[in-house]
Write a structure and sequence with these properties.
The chain has about 725 residues and is α+β, with helices and mostly antiparallel strands. About 25% of the residues lie in helices and about 25% in strands. The strands form seven sheets. Strands 7, 8, 9, 10, 11, 12 and 13 form a seven-stranded antiparallel beta sheet that branches. Helix 2 runs antiparallel to helix 5 and helix 11 runs antiparallel to helix 12. The protein is elongated, with a radius of gyration of 44 Å. The relative contact order is 0.06. It comes from Streptomyces lateritius.
């Protein structure tokens, strides 16, 4: 309520409502200069006032009256007018008004909300005698509404609003972090220097994950500290620059059970640094050499997650800055709670991401084999860093006869289920490849396996078998994008392979085609994530990939193939923004082949003379290849392996020698029973053949085929 120093001092009409808009200022005939409305409480001076004064009506516009006209209340209030012919005039909502007595502009500030109290006369700016009540000039009164701590209610409200806005902005910044470092960085950047001049964040080491019981002892490690200072550069304004702490806090702190720090952490609530509990806890946490500001200039806030305390944050202010207020403890509690819960979730997410990443990596080959006559390179890219699990896979499986199976597949989806199904299909493909089944039969069995895994377990797959001796490749496709063959001269072509139906459809046949695989050519197998995206269809992407391969081959010339690793990197570089909608598996095979002059092949009848004939044929081949130094070892091992084959074979036995970087010998027969190495007794006449092979050969093995088996061994050649 506002007092009006008019002739009707006994009347106190109600203030005008805030909803009413201010009427234009009117000049009263014979009256002094009108008064202007001010919007903030200004501290006044006691005693009468002279000249022009300002009246502040809290909650509504100020009224302006002549000397002989009393104030008239609003008609909406239901009150009668205070005197006949009274005229109510409202001050305009202007930024300033002219004062006749002071000769200067008076600023008008925004209004503050709060209950009205007694008016206080104010001396005009610029000095002068205070205005006296009842003069021709309208007197102005200021409502001095005070907050709980002596501050005006409006200032306190603004202060609380700023505090709430800061908490909201800080928590949003903390919540944006997805991993541990981002969350801690968000806390530090949100509080320094707005809330504190320095912050130290300690976290438990190691951090417990989920329901894991924390390990003993309870150790806190300094995770991050931010400290800024203001520097006055000559000719420039004050700027913020990093300021390393000359007395750094302790890196590690072991929390003693029953100690002061343990009690503060157990209490969960933030405490001021000058409290009895914090005075003993802070030196234990920061170390005895680290200074702690006195008064309310330090806050120790425990970080409690969902189940336990996982750390602590220390907020510090400099002596030249005002100390923390009691409400700042609530701010620190909010920041600590959001940070601790965010860290809890980040640790859980990190564990899940680690499990998913390890699962994906274990489903893919750690390294590719290096079979004879072919060089291999591969790449795998997840769909996104935040979703590292997918269903794409690739594989290279050595087969008997120096052949190699090349496999690439894609399971629908990007989840742990897709990765698990991919792992089962990859294992099934490896098992089927070990049986030396034709490519179309491998896909048929994969289709049956996918149906056994459940409904809607669909995948695409391409299975190819390369023979370096015949320089041929056999390919079968199950709904997968076709491979691209890059020839030595730089020509790239999309191989025409029957598309087939995806694995898991059931009831379909798969068809295989046999194509030439010339030496020096490169076969590229890939998944649809490389060529298909929201910005292009799959066939447009395949054509762009073919053109990219041809352009890359032109850089190395017609007589040289581009390096495999560089070729894979260049292919992935064609991906632009928005092209990563799916994970990508890439397998590149460079066909070197084996020259016919480095291959010797014979058929041996299953008779007692076969081992002797095999020794003679091998000796001649080694002499032709200038490898006579291996004759003794090769003849001994061939004699043992051929003897075992003749014992069980019913059809002719095959013998093949391959000269590459090693000498490989392969003996095949029609018996499916694989030989097993055993330890012979002193009285046994046999059983020592495979023991000799194991001791003399660099590698050896036995593989079951659809029509028998192959036993092979390798010996190193001279450099």
């Amino acid at each position: 309520m506002t007092e009006h120093p008019t002739s009707h001092e006994g009347r106190q009409p109600p203030a005008a409502r805030p909803q009413e808009r201010a009427r234009p200022r009117q000049e009263a005939a014979g009256a002094g200069a009108p008064a202007a409305a001010a919007d903030v409480p200004v501290p006044g001076q006691s005693g009468p006032s002279a000249g022009r004064s300002r009246a502040v009506a809290r909650g509504g516009p100020a009224h302006e009256h002549g000397h002989d006209s009393p104030a008239r209340p609003s008609s909406e209030e239901g009150h009668a007018a205070a005197g006949a012919g009274a005229d109510t005039r409202r001050a305009p909502a202007a930024s300033s008004v002219s004062g006749e007595d002071s000769g200067r502009e008076w600023p008008v500030l925004p209004a503050q909300a709060g209950p009205p109290v007694a008016a206080v006369p104010v001396t005009p700016p610029g000095g002068g005698a205070p205005a006296q009540a009842g003069t021709a000039s309208a007197a102005m009164a200021v409502t001095a509404a005070q907050g709980p701590q002596g501050a005006p209610d409006g200032l306190a409200a603004r202060h609380e609003g700023d505090r709430l806005r800061f908490v909201g902005a800080a928590t949003r910044r903390i919540a944006r972090g997805i991993d541990l470092d981002e969350i801690v960085l968000g806390l530090c950047r949100a509080t320094v220097p707005t809330f504190s001049d320095a912050i130290l964040v300690y976290l438990r080491d190691p951090l417990p994950v989920g329901d894991e019981r924390p390990v003993a002892p309870f150790v806190l490690r300094l995770r991050r500290t931010d400290r800024l200072r203001l520097t006055d550069l000559e000719g420039e304004e004050l700027v913020l620059v990093p300021d390393p702490d000359p007395t750094p806090a302790a890196e590690l702190c072991e929390v003693r059970s029953g100690g002061a720090l343990a009690e503060v952490l157990r209490g969960v609530r933030p405490v001021f640094g000058d409290s009895a509990a914090a005075r003993a806890a802070l030196p234990e946490l920061l170390g005895g050499d680290h200074p702690v500001p006195g008064g309310h200039r330090a806050i120790l806030a425990p970080l409690r997650g969902r189940r336990r305390v996982i750390g602590a944050a220390v907020f510090l202010r400099r002596p030249e800055r005002p100390g923390f207020e009691p409400n700042d403890l609530l701010v620190a509690a909010q920041l600590a709670t959001h940070t601790a819960l965010g860290i809890d979730k980040a640790v859980l997410y990190g564990r899940e991401a680690y499990i998913a990443d390890e699962l994906q990596r274990t489903m893919l080959p750690d390294s590719l084999p290096q079979p004879t006559g072919v060089r291999l390179a591969s790449r795998y890219l997840p769909a996104a860093e935040t979703a590292r699990v997918g269903g794409d896979w690739y594989d290279a499986i050595p087969l008997p006869g120096s052949r190699v199976a090349l496999v690439v597949g894609d399971v629908m989806g990007h989840s742990m289920t897709s990765a698990a199904i991919m792992g089962q299909l990859r294992t099934t493909a490896q098992t089927l490849a070990g049986l030396d089944l034709p490519p179309q039969e491998v896909l048929h069995h994969l289709d049956e396996q996918a149906q056994r895994l459940g409904q809607d377990r669909m995948a695409t797959c391409l299975y190819a078998v390369y023979d370096p001796v015949s320089h041929r490749i056999t390919i079968a496709n199950a709904g997968h994008p076709p491979p691209i063959l890059l020839h030595l001269g730089g020509r790239a072509e999309v191989l025409r392979v029957p598309p087939g139906a995806p694995i898991g459809v059931g009831g379909v046949d798969f068809e295989a085609v046999e194509l030439d695989a010339p030496a020096g050519a490169t076969l590229l197998l890939y998944t649809d994530g490389l060529v298909e995206s929201r910005l292009r269809d799959v066939w447009t992407g395949i054509e762009q990939l073919r053109e990219r391969l041809a352009a890359t081959a032109q850089l190395t010339g017609p007589d040289h193939s581009p390096p495999l690793e560089a070729l894979c990197d260049d292919v992935l570089d064609m991906l632009g923004p928005g092209d990563r909608d799916d994970d990508i598996a890439l397998l590149a095979a460079r066909f070197d082949g084996i020259a016919p002059s480095d291959v010797a092949y014979w058929f041996l009848e299953p008779e007692d003379a076969a081992p002797g004939r095999a020794r003679r044929l091998a000796r001649r081949a080694l002499a032709r290849w200038d490898l006579e130094e291996l004759s003794d070892s090769v003849e001994l091992l061939i004699s043992e392996v051929v003897t075992n084959a003749v014992r069980y074979a019913e059809r002719p036995v095959t013998l093949r020698l391959l000269r590459t970087d090693v000498l490989r010998c392969e003996v095949g027969d029609d018996s499916p029973q694989l030989p097993r190495q055993r330890r012979a007794r002193d009285t046994d006449e046999g059983g020592r053949g495979l023991f000799l092979v194991n001791r003399l050969a660099r590698r050896w093995g036995a593989t079951r085929l659809s029509g028998g088996k192959v036993v092979w061994f390798e010996l190193p050649t001279r450099s």
